Amino acid sequence: MEFKIKSGDLATQKTPCLILGLFEKRKLSGPAETVDEASGGHLSEVLRKGDLDGETARTLMLYGVPGLACERVLLVGCGKGKEFDRRSYRKAVGAAVSLLDKAGTRAALCTLPELVPEGMDLYRTVRDAVTTYADKVYRFDQTKGEKKPTRSPLKRLDVWVSKKEDTKTAQQAVDQGTAIAQGIALAKDLGNLPGNICTPGYLADTAIALGKDSAKLRVEVLEKKDMEKLGMGALLSVARGSRQPPKFITMEYRGGKEGAKPLVLVGKGLTFDAGGISLKPSAEMDEMKFDMCGGASVLGAMKAALELKLPINLVGVIPASENLPDGNANKPGDIVTSLSGQTIEILNTDAEGRLILCDALTYCERFEPAAVIDMATLTGACVVALGKHPCGLFTQDEKLAAEILAAGDAAGDRAWRMPLWDDYQEELDSNFADMANIGSRWGGAITAACFLSRYTKKYPWAHLDIAGVAWLSGKEKGATGRPVSLLTEILLERSG
Length: 496
Ligand code: BES
Ligand code: MN
Ligand code: ZN
Known about the structure:
- By secondary structure, the protein is α/β, with parallel strands linked by helices.
- Helix content is 34%, strand content 20%.
- The chain is built from 14 helices and 21 strands.
- Strands 8, 9, 10, 11, 12, 15, 16, 17 and 19 form a nine-stranded mixed beta sheet that branches. Strands 1, 2, 3, 4, 5, 6 and 7 form a seven-stranded mixed beta sheet that branches.
- A hairpin with a 5-residue loop joins β13 and β14.
- α6 (200-212) packs parallel to α9, α9 crosses α14 and α10 packs parallel to α13 (444-453).
- The structure holds ligand BES, manganese (II) ion and zinc ion.
- The site of manganese (II) ion (MN) has 5 residues, from loops.
């Protein structure tokens, strides 16, 4: 992964492939127009033959274009000029990268970042080019027996800027984009690993390995007996049905001013969720290996923060466990005592995420957080409510809400706010304990957030339900690395 910023005459750029944008109907983008002139109108002449209209992500490769130093030209459709937005921009970049990577082209020079859609700027287009590139060339083959030799994939994507004075901005976008991409790749790898490899212990080892990379990062892993001493009865109850010991991972990164209150990120690290005694149906149950993606996003954001050496105090907390049926497992009706002292009647053992998170959220108090944000693949109901595009944001803190929504918009990794009104709280009433772990059939993402809110009274707090965004299903099955971009945006913003 390598990105150099180039500027100056396009005709004389030596590159295996020059990537140019084309809008409908056959309207050359600015850089493409310049190249067309340099080639004596060759591009327009080819386009007149009608092979490419400019539809988003359609491509046409041209060889032997006269008057240019490049080996070939790739024309990429960007859609209708008037409708050009971030989505079509990413699709166009993605199409170019995929084509070249599959073809085995080693390097290319991309002019698409100069086409800045409404609401974006050059920093954003360059950064998106980097993260889109990384997304397209990402391969997960750790668990393949037969390792296909990677045949010379696209190793280098240079970025062309029209004004030399934009080089600094573009370079910053490359640096930050690269760090974010590394964080995303870590989160994807962890998500994609199966439950028999990516266990709570594996997550802990990953955190410990991160700690070895930086003197500013202190990693601590609490074992079952430590959690027992503390009184994490809710978390421990979830782990009862599992042969894998639970781990409670904390990562303290001190990059900021001494004494400055840290931002704390908490991630659900449920390495496999079979539902427990309230067993899930078997269809697509394999996807519950992704139930640790909240935890993976904490590790991913931490990785990006380390890469960028951000001047910020950041704590990552990952309660990690499996949720399996067993003779020793939680049973419906069981009552457990959480670290906060509040008791919980477990009416459904499949609502386990909130049980491991509530103890983690209470534990966070000791960090005297500036704010706590938790990420969790918490409810199927959130996917029903919002689909698979935004994650659900729940908070009663207006400032934090505005910050997170803005970060999601800026990063192109969006959140959508959901209500967290007290009207829903009574659904958690229990006849036998301080609360039940489930509400009614309706608004399940909201009652889950209401449950967590009872453990977060001592600091500003927001919850992101990432069940719809953390992975893709079907042919594209795999972790997305979301919401590492959103989180890193917050870290960058808080770094000033
Ligand atoms: N990890 C699941 C949530 C989930 C399910 C995410 C399917 C994505 C796809 C969580 O632990 C869970 O099982 N939640 C239950 C809660 C219910 C029992 C109140 C759910 O959503 O069905
Ligand atoms: Mn569950
Ligand atoms: Zn779960």
